[in-house]
């Protein structure tokens, strides 16, 4: 696997995700370019696992751009909901990306279960694909629990209902600097960097 250098395509149209990955890449002198800025199509996530979706997106972006591509597939797994929304986390928000209703659905389904276990984890798989077809994937997780009502307007996705273990603030209440080292994405990124060094 080549070292990270130059420009890399972040295979996502999610501005929050691209910004987070860009901040993780910056110390290595790597310029993150979003798939959206290159007008690359967003492939439909048809796989049933995080790694399957991440690898599919990375390959598509590397092939279309001729540059190394980094894709992430991530989601929230709530243990009392048998891991849901999981790989379908974005789909729970619908085509309008309405995460307020997705967060409300998580809470509603927890209440319907009548379970007092609110533990959950964010999972991230990062896949780095080269234009020559080589690919490697790395998984990270952040454990915590669900709170309601949602708190904070920072971050994105399910951040306002997730409190990481050992903390009292939700990801949605944390500054980017506070949140980033605690994330599933940072943990996956640490493994990616270790493999490249």
Number of helices: 6
Oligomer: single chain
What is the tally of beta strands? 6
Low-pLDDT stretches are: none
CATH class membership? Alpha Beta
Task: Summarize this entry quickly.
The protein is of the alpha/beta class and 197 residues long. It has helices at residues 15-25, 50-65, 89-92, 99-113, 176-179, 184-196, and strands spanning 7-10, 31-34, 69-78, 119-129, 135-146, 162-164.
Q: Could you please describe the fold and organization of this structure?
A:
The protein is α/β, with parallel strands linked by helices and 197 residues long. The chain has a single domain, classed as Alpha-Beta Complex (Maf protein), CATH 3.90.950.10. The protein is 32% helix and 22% strand. The chain has 6 helices and 6 strands. The protein has helices spanning 15-25, 50-65, 89-92, 99-113, 176-179, 184-196, and strands at 7-10, 31-34, 69-78, 119-129, 135-146, 162-164. It has a 6-stranded mixed sheet with strand order 2-1-3-4-5-6. Strand 1 (7-10), helix 1 (15-25) and strand 2 form a beta-alpha-beta unit. The radius of gyration is 16 Å and the shape is globular. The relative contact order is 0.16. The model has no long low-confidence stretch (mean pLDDT 92).
